[in-house]
Amino acid sequence: MALPQTEYLLLQHDGPFLHVTLNRPEARNALSLGMASELMSVFDAIRDDESIRALIIRGAGGHFCAGGDIKDMAGARAALAAGDDDAMFRFNRSFGEMITVCNELPQTVVTVIEGAALGGGFGLACVSDVAIAHADATFGLPETGLGVIPAQIAPFVVKRIGVTQARRLALTGIRFKGHEALRLGIVHEVAESSDELEQCIEKTLSAIKRCAPNANRVTKQLVLNVENTDMNDILDQAAHAFADATKSAEGQEGTMAFVQKRLPNWAQ
Fold it and tell me: Could you give all domains of the chain from N- to C-terminal order, each with its CATH number?
């Protein structure tokens, strides 16, 4: 696998895992156009690589991501004023494209949330398969307080926590901490200290490693299809996928390992 050269991301390939660190600590890792483009390049590079089983996204300097970059928005406003009528649309839509691709990656996406997780950072948390937060992390949708809207984020927030809570958060802009994020279903685990956070990450990656790689990819696609496909079609597809899985090398190895009371080869 050839990873792209990046300026705003730190990439660490560790066996079946790719660690991606948002690296603009001077801006609390605000999502610039450059960072979004680099994330898209990383997603494109790993999408079809079955050796990468999980993508772990976190932020440098004690923050996850403080939202969109105001400087980039100012640039789009200037282009709009200069006569480019689509400048603001393209600016906003580029983040929606990135977060959609992240949501649909076949790999398991794990977000590790410390410090600020606002706006676009909140959105990234909502499209992760596993979200782990420090208790002191701060979540919120501040867009309406700035006179704009969480246009590309709100649909994913609704899918994550439901319409009622999404309306409350989006229409008040309130900030809240890790335990409230856990209660709402935005994150799955909350750690009280940095050491406990690292232990949660290690436990999650160990669990992922025990899952058959292709079975995980197919299962994730099945879960994503639930919202977009007729239920009977989903169950038909699921039955075909199950039959294929049982006949696959993974399915045979998993069954044999269970019978022999040992770990399957992908977990060793």
Answer: 9-209 (3.90.226.10), 212-267 (1.10.12.10)
Average pLDDT of the segment spanning 104-109? 97
Tell me the Cα Rg of the chain.
Answer: 20
pLDDT in tens, 187-238: 999 999 999 999 999 999 999 999 999 999 999 999 999 877 776 786 787 7
**SS3 of 219, please?**
helix
Cβ within 8 Å of residue 253, ≥6 positions away: 212, 264, 265, 266
Per-residue pLDDT tens over the stretch 36-59:
999 999 999 999 999 999 999 999
- Number of residues in the chain: 268
In degrees rounded to 5, what are phi and psi of residue 59? Answer: -120, 155
Max CA distance (Å), the chain: 70
CA–CA distance, 193 with 188 (Å, rounded to integer)? 16
Residue showing tokens 């959609």:
100
Buried b (16+ CB within 10 A) or exposed e, 77-94: eebeeeeeeebeeebbeb
Spatial separation of the C-alpha atoms in residues 49 and 35, rounded to whole Å: 22
What amino acid is encoded at 92 in this protein?
N
Q: Check: CB of residue 67 under 8 Å from CB of residue 120.
A: yes
This prediction has a pTM of 0.91
Give the residues across from 133 on adjacent strands: 113, 190
Question: Strands, DSSP E only, in the chain?
Answer: 9-14, 17-22, 54-59, 108-113, 116-118, 130-134, 138-140, 189-191
Q: Is 46 in contact with 19 (CB distance < 8 Å)?
A: no
